[in-house]
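Much of what follows relies on a compact textual record of a protein's fold. A record is reproduced here so that you can trace the correspondence yourselves:

. . .
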Amino acid sequence: MSTQIAVRLPDEMVAFLDRTVAIGKAPSRAALVAAAVEREMRRQAAEQDAQVLRQEGAADDLDALVQWSSTHLELED
C-alpha cells in the first residue's frame, strides 16, 4: 500500500530529481524520494544498532561458535 503526500522541496532539489529521472538513474521523482527515505530508515536503524552495541557490547551467544569455527574449519580455495 502507498499513500500520496505533498512535500515542499527547494528548487535545487526538484531540479536534481528531474535531472536524475531525465538521465534514467531513477524511474520517477517519487521512486527517488522513496529510495532516499528508505536509505535514511536504514541509516537510523544502523545508528540505533551501534548505540546498543556501545551500551551492551558485542558479546552474544554466538561468540563461542565463531571462536570454535575460526580454529576448526578449513576453507578450500
Remarks:
- The mean pLDDT is 91.
- The first helix runs from residue 11 to 22.
- DSSP finds three helices and no strands in the chain.
